[in-house]
Amino acid sequence: MYKKTVILLFAPLLFTGQDNVRFAETIIKKDLKKHLTFLASDSLEGRESGKRGQKIAGEYIKNHFKKIGIPPYKRKKYFQKFKVESDRHICKYNCENCDEDFITKLFKKKRTVKGENVLGFIKGTDISDETLIITAHYDHLGKHDTLLFNGADDNASGTSAILEIAEAFMIAKKEGRGPRRSILIMAVAGEEKGLLGSEHYTKNPVYPLEKTVANLNIDMIGRVDYYHDTSGYIYLIGSDMLSQDLHDLSEKINKKHIGLDLDYTFNSKDDPNKYYYRSDHYNFAKNNIPVIFYFNGLHDDYHKVTDTIEKIDFNKMETITRLIFLTAWEIVNREERIKINE
Question: Is the pLDDT of residue 115 over 50?
Fold first, then answer.
């Protein structure tokens, strides 16, 4: 029997208003580290979409969903496959050892990109036709010549978070506290090629977009950026652009339970960094679905071979993952659907 479930079987059976906190506390840094250590290992060769490492990572995520009791979403399938043309071979990165011909080969040749989104669907109880989608991209830049991009922060950190969030919700469900609305936990491929996996999903939705209440997207939550001296912050992007209601809910949950510095420095469509447009939440926002993008900001190892496991702050990851779980819990269990700005 799974270790976390055994622990919770000894908890009181009387449900209280603090059940959300109790289930959030099943998200622990030890398990986050276990997931991230595998996903960012050399053996996965940087998880480039369509390559061997991405396939192994997808199988790992699928097997985790099976282990915690999430059934296949359709015809015994967990994968939503895609195959698209892209002229963005890999996202630009600091490549100090690459010559001009190598850069040209990477960025000028149009290629077919294959990949799989991995879907874990937790059906709701009395409002099951409405769905919250929680995403993180699990692909990275891959291996090119002698350069291996492990992508520990980008985005093994976010992928590890959604695996633990899925497990916390399944523990609650097995105790009779399943979410009222449905939850789709989706590990997305093709992000580094141009948000391709999330674009494919929004063009070929498995669950109706008009019934999708929000998207919480996690992309890099394991490091401290250039502008902060401590780890007690997270950038939130997009939270009020489509829904002041979602923004207010997020603020309330953080203030009540976590107490992080919610930093809105980059929360603007006009921000020169364009972060609002640079991760998978944007494909949902384009479809008028409220979003929050959780992001720790850039650091010296962003898109470099030095984005490795030993630099991850797992205490920070644990805190942010619990915040996202508690925010998701409120979204799926409250009476009213998240309101869109008029």
Answer: yes
Burial label for 228, CB within 10 Å (0-12, 13-18, 19+), is middle
Average pLDDT, the chain: 91
Hey, CA dihedral for 3, 9, 11, 17, is it positive or negative? positive
State both tokens at 308: 């490795």
CA dist 140 and 117 (Å) reads: 14
Q: What residues form DSSP beta bridges with 217?
A: 135, 293
Residue 322, pLDDT > 50, answer yes
Residue 116's Cβ-count burial label (10 Å; 0-12, 13-18, 19+) is buried
Strands of the chain, DSSP E: 79-86, 111-122, 127-137, 142-144, 147-149, 181-188, 212-218, 233-237, 261-263, 291-295
Q: Has residue 96 got a pLDDT over 50?
A: no
Q: Which residues contact 151 (CB under 8 A, 6 or more apart)?
A: 40, 46, 47, 140, 141, 307
Tokens representing 319? 């805190």
Handedness of CA 17, 23, 27, 30 (dihedral sign): positive
pLDDT grade for 312, boundaries at 50, 70 and 90: very high
Q: What is the pTM of this model?
A: 0.91
- What is the amino acid identity at position 271? D
The pLDDT-based confidence of 74 (bands split at 50, 70, 90) is: confident
User: Distances in Å between the alpha carbon of 263 and those of 223, 225, 322?
Assistant: 15, 12, 17
CA angle 97, 103, 106 (to 5 degrees): 125
Give the count of alpha carbons within 13 A of 99, CB side only: 2
Longest dimension (CA), the chain: 65
Residue 315: is the preceding peptide bond cis (ω within 30°)? no
What local confidence, expressed as pLDDT, does residue 90 receive? 46
